[in-house]
């Protein structure tokens, strides 16, 4: 769709572009319909109460190195959905379909912070909220949760350690990002990666579009408003904690 015909007030998570809402997306609906017809979503077509009923999680935590491609601590100083593989697109369709199945239940889950959430927090403090999510099969430390950022940031030094080739970056023709000392920062490119929050069974995984920039930073990445909105996550700086709804209840990540 030509840019001049796009509705700038609507955004599609599937195409990572403006013009229409995700629930209006023709291509996503057709993909989900085809997957249902082919039986690829049978495991997701279950009774909602059975799906959300509390049950013992018997899965063992993976040993170090079994699940993650790598583990990044500090920096040293995609393909986008439109170009993603069929497997990645199908994974996203399953994610959206699964989301629709328990959306009403998630809305009934209140997210609140209590005195118990202050555990291990040294008060008073002015610390930022840093978490350790799994991004693109890499467990990443020092990821800043910043609801004031209008984009999700992946720093180039971090990107270079994640075993992705530069050719996977999608060229970005958008305006530079502002906010780093009020100076414009050119965008190296964009990449869409899976982001996993929480600890089993209270986990949630979404595809997140990151802008890769080449600037010095004490952080490895920034989860901004787009990511926090997609996870329906709520952060509390005083408690140094991030909470979000999952299929099994409220998940959380404590600040690092």
UniProtKB/TrEMBL annotation:
<protein>
    <submittedName>
        <fullName>Uncharacterized protein</fullName>
    </submittedName>
</protein>
<dbReference type="InterPro" id="IPR021109">
    <property type="entry name" value="Peptidase_aspartic_dom_sf"/>
</dbReference>
<feature type="compositionally biased region" description="Basic and acidic residues">
    <location>
        <begin position="52"/>
        <end position="69"/>
    </location>
</feature>
<feature type="region of interest" description="Disordered">
    <location>
        <begin position="52"/>
        <end position="87"/>
    </location>
</feature>
């Amino acid at each position: 769709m030509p840019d001049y015909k796009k509705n700038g007030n609507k955004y599609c998570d599937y195409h990572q572009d403006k013009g229409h809402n995700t629930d209006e997306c023709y291509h996503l609906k057709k993909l989900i319909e085809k997957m249902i017809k082919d039986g690829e979503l049978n495991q997701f077509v279950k009774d909602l109460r059975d799906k959300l009923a509390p049950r013992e999680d018997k899965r063992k935590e993976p040993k170090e190195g079994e699940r993650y491609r790598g583990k990044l601590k500090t920096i040293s100083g995609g393909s986008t959905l439109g170009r993603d593989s069929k497997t990645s697109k199908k994974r996203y369709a399953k994610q959206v379909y699964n989301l629709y199945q328990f959306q009403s239940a998630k809305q009934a889950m209140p997210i609140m912070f209590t005195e118990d959430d202050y555990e291990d927090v040294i008060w008073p403090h002015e610390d930022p909220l840093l978490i350790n999510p799994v991004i693109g099969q890499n467990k990443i430390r020092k990821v800043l949760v910043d609801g004031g950022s209008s984009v999700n940031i992946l720093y180039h030094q971090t990107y270079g350690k994640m075993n992705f080739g530069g050719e996977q970056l999608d060229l970005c023709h958008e305006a530079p990002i502002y906010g780093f000392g009020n100076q414009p920062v050119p965008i190296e490119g964009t990449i869409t990666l899976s982001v996993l929050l929480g600890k089993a069974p209270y986990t949630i995984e979404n595809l997140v579009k990151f802008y890769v920039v080449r600037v010095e930073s004490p952080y490895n990445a920034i989860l901004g408003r787009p990511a926090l909105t997609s996870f329906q996550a709520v952060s509390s700086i005083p408690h140094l904690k991030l909470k979000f709804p999952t299929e099994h209840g409220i998940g959380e990540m404590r600040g690092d």
